[in-house]
Write a structure and sequence with these properties.
The structure holds 2 protein chains of 2 kinds.
Chain A lengths: L2 H17 L1 H21 L7 E7 L4 H11 L4 E7 L2 H9 L5 E5 L3 H6 L3 E9 L3 H31 L3 H8 L2 E8 L6 H32 L2 H5 L5 H30 L8 H25 L3 H18 L12 H8 L3 H14 L3 H25 L7
Parallel strand pairs in A: 1-2, 1-3
Antiparallel strand pairs in A: 3-4
Helix pairs in contact in A: 1-10, 2-8, 2-10, 6-7, 8-10, 8-11, 8-12, 8-14, 10-11, 11-12, 11-14, 11-15, 14-15
Chain B lengths: L2 H30 L1 H11 L1 H7 L9 E7 L4 H7 L7 E6 L3 H9 L5 E5 L3 H7 L3 E8 L3 H30 L8 E9 L6 H32 L1 H7 L4 H32 L7 H25 L3 H18 L11 H6 L4 H15 L3 H26 L5
Parallel strand pairs in B: 1-2, 1-3
Antiparallel strand pairs in B: 3-4
The chains are: A alpha/beta, B alpha/beta.
Chain lengths: 384, 390
């Protein structure tokens, strides 16, 4: 490979990018804007769940029970409803997501040591948040139960409530959250966003470059020149990779300085891994550019591939280990999943080369494999 | 018939014929590009199938490691209550430091630490503390893991609590209890496949409807064929309308294939509401999004610019409209901004009609918002149509 020729292609490409001012600006602005919007918006905390109460008992005990939910920061109380019909209507209109129906004789049954019936209606349209809401409701109900039982037994047995409470809870679970002590999702979201944005933008920056020359016919200049295929492809990759590296640095600064995410790991490790990851995602864009004939196709295919991979097969929203067979395999075929482990490790877990070296190997092998594939697919002599 | 009315009718027919011919041209262009054709088929078939097996925050076989300092029958009892489908015992660890190492490597999501005096405390009626270290680098599943663990521990300690109460002179059979019956509506089995396939369909329709017309328009602009069309007897309205209509037609066919060919037969996704209403509103949604794409294309000079501009609009629309992240927890300003996302309204419509059987009486405000956004964008695109060449 003649480096002078590689740089000549890169320089020409770079000039083309520089001359399109709007494109040049967008290439740097886009990652920043996505990071800001998602950093504020993409919280995975499920809070402010609109809920209402149907209280058929109307006693201090039932109001107490309702208050346990009203006081919770997860729920946003929208008022009492007259009956279950109103609940049905408001759930159907999506004005409410949860309705708690406290049955008649609630207080009486509790006072006499029996089981009181409560019903919780949950809108199951969005299954992921529904599951978390179920867990919230059960936790609050369990706490309410424990309080009522303790009070009841303390009265019955004439013992101090603290002692009864100790008898009732023989095993106490102490939960310690690691890596993200307050379970604040911006901390787990911000590193994930770097992965997401570096999966979205580099392929798109790259995807149009070769196909544009195919459309305008400029590719024939390359075909008739002495430059080799590898030199041409490397020269094409270089400017996009450099832009993305600058973007990665900006994203890292935004995550740590602006969003205040702790960076516990080694910066050197993170930089090496990020460079390799960018090579992988940019090479994917190049591959698409070689496979298609129109810019329209290149754009939509690179965009859709990036969106699908980054959202579904990266571990951003749901862990890869929870994916079923075929999807588990697809996730392993793209670099995003490995880089997600890298960002999580470097930001939250303070681990680096010693644990995550296999990921680096994957990136290196992946980039080389995709580049090799591009080399195979790119023909200077067009098929006749 | 009045001759002037006759003439107007004849003109209208020609006008419509021109739009139809142009629309056919757009569709042919889409289908003749082999990569684009494969892509269009893919998003409505295979991609839906892939999405069905995808995202779920359900805890499945989450690896649990145990540090058991007690090694008694009681502690083993507790350990073995962590079972599939939610948890999976991945083995014991000898020390807390090893536990941390395994958590680092992701080989455990939770480590249970059982103290040496676990069984002794139980028999002495002293509360004993079991520690759970939970990896919350994935905030959502971390919370679910801790809540399921709490439930398992609560069930385990019930027997011991009853023993304690009997020994204190109480009667565990007559204790007050609140039984909270959880009823999930519209998706009683919490089948993630329903949610996932619908959400995937909406995402793909959104991306395609914005990007394809924008890219088609910019191509004509780059090649100069758009200026050729402008000097022909066609009006800008006809040119834009043909791009919208062809998009609507492709999306309607694709959605029909996805819903009737994949989602309903393979995953028994319900179709509770009205079929014509659903497809009518899908067409409206395609119109609104195509309007967005065309308006964006009038601001760009080449394909590369349009690609970046579309990405900038599409990603927030897809991620923040309420499927991937809950609307409720967004800051108020962002929620207000998302009002302008057509997908935000179409989510109400699609899930509403398919799962809840909602009619126009419930959905009218979403429909109105979609229509208003669409008309405004279409008007903007039309107004800029000629001036974009300056």
């Amino acid at each position: 490979m003649n480096l002078a020729r590689v740089f000549a292609v890169a320089q020409r490409e770079w000039r083309e990018i520089l001359r399109d001012r709007i494109y040049f600006l967008l290439a740097f602005l886009l990652p920043v804007m996505l990071m800001l919007v998602f950093g504020y918006g993409m919280s995975q905390d499920i809070e402010n769940i609109a809920f209402a109460v149907v209280d058929e008992d109307r006693t201090p005990a039932s109001r107490d029970y309702a208050h346990q939910f009203i006081a919770s920061r997860y729920f946003a109380f929208k008022g009492y409803l007259p009956d279950a019909d109103a609940a049905d209507r408001l759930l159907a209109q999506r004005k409410l997501r949860v309705v708690i129906v406290i049955g008649p004789r609630f207080a009486e049954q509790l006072r006499t040591g029996r089981t009181a019936q409560v019903q919780t209606l949950i809108d199951g349209t969005f299954t992921t948040s529904t599951r978390t809401i179920q867990a919230y409701v059960e936790a609050i109900n369990q706490a309410a139960n424990a309080g009522i039982r303790t009070g009841y037994l303390a009265r019955r047995l004439g013992l101090p409530p603290e002692q009864v409470s100790r008898l009732m809870r023989p095993v106490v679970l102490e939960v310690r959250y690691l890596y993200n002590q307050e379970v604040r999702s911006i901390w787990s979201v911000a590193p994930g966003l770097i992965m997401l944005i570096l999966m979205l933008v580099p392929p798109l920056l790259m995807a149009l470059s070769v196909v544009r020359e195919k459309e305008t016919g400029a590719i024939y200049n390359v075909c008739s020149s002495t430059i080799t295929r590898a030199e041409y492809l490397a020269g094409k990759l270089l400017p996009s990779v450099s832009i993305s590296c600058v973007n990665a640095a900006i994203l890292w600064l935004l995550a740590t300085l602006y969003f205040g995410t702790l960076f516990k790991g080694s910066l050197l490790f993170f930089a090496v891994a990020t460079l390799l990851y960018i090579l992988c995602t940019t090479a994917l864009g190049l591959l698409i550019s070689l496979l298609v004939r129109t810019q329209q196709a290149a754009m939509i295919i690179s965009l859709v591939m990036s969106i699908i991979v980054a959202i579904q097969f990266s571990g951003l929203i749901t862990p890869v280990s929870a994916l079923s067979g075929g999807n588990y395999a697809i996730a392993h075929a793209f670099p995003a999943m490995y880089y997600n482990a890298v960002v999580k490790g470097a930001f939250l877990k303070a681990i680096g080369f010693e644990v995550l070296w296999p990921q680096l190997l994957v990136f290196a092998a992946y980039a080389i494999a995709v580049f090799f594939l591009c080399h195979l697919l790119f023909r200077k002599r067009t098929r006749t | 018939m009045n001759p002037s009315v006759k003439r107007t009718l004849a003109l209208a027919r020609v006008w419509l014929q021109q739009v139809a011919v142009l629309s056919m041209k757009e569709i042919k262009q889409l289908l003749r590009d082999r990569a684009l054709f494969i892509y269009t088929v893919y998003i409505f078939t295979a991609n839906i199938i892939i999405a069905a097996g995808g995202a779920s925050n359900e805890l499945r076989d989450s690896p649990v490691r145990v540090h058991d300092a007690d090694r008694s029958a009681e502690s083993r009892d507790l350990i073995y209550s962590f079972q599939p489908p939610r948890f999976r015992l991945a083995g014991e660890v000898d020390s807390p430091t090893e536990a941390l190492r395994l958590l680092d490597r992701g080989e455990a999501q939770m480590v249970l630490d059982i103290p040496a005096d676990f069984s002794a405390s139980l028999w002495r009626q002293q509360p004993t503390h079991v520690q759970a270290l939970i990896d919350t680098s994935q905030a959502n599943t971390g919370y679910l893991a801790s809540s399921y663990a709490a439930r398992i521990i609560a069930r385990y300690s019930e027997g011991w609590a009853e023993r304690n109460i009997i020994r204190a002179g109480g009667d565990p059979r007559h204790l007050p209890a609140i039984k909270n019956d959880l009823r999930v509506w519209y998706n009683a089995g919490l089948n993630d496949k329903w949610f996932n396939t619908i959400s995937e369909l909406l995402t793909m329709v959104t991306v395609a409807c914005i990007l394809l017309p924008a890219a088609a328009m910019i191509r004509e602009k780059e090649r100069g064929t758009l200026e050729q069309l402008l000097v022909s007897p066609l009006t800008p309205l006809q040119i834009m309308l043909s791009k919208l209509l062809s998009m609507m037609l492709v999306m309607l066919c694709g959605t029909a294939v996805a819903v009737f060919g994949i989602m309903m037969p393979l995953y028994s996704v319900p179709f509770v509401g009205s079929v014509p209403l659903f497809f009518l509103l899908t067409a409206l949604y395609a119109f609104t999004n195509a309007g967005l794409g065309l308006a964006a294309a009038t601001f760009a000079r080449n394909s590369a610019q349009v690609g970046l501009v579309v990405l900038l609009m599409v990603m927030p629309i897809v991620m923040l409209s309420g499927t991937w992240t809950p609307m409720e927890s967004m800051p108020a300003w962002l929620r207000a901004l998302m009002f302008f996302s057509p997908l935000r309204h179409f989510i109400e419509v699609a899930y509403g009609i398919l799962l809840r059987g909602a009619g126009i009486g419930v959905l009218w405000d979403s429909v109105l918002a979609m229509a208003a956004i669409g008309v405004a964008l279409f008007a903007l695109g039309l107004a800029r149509f000629r001036s974009q060449f300056a």
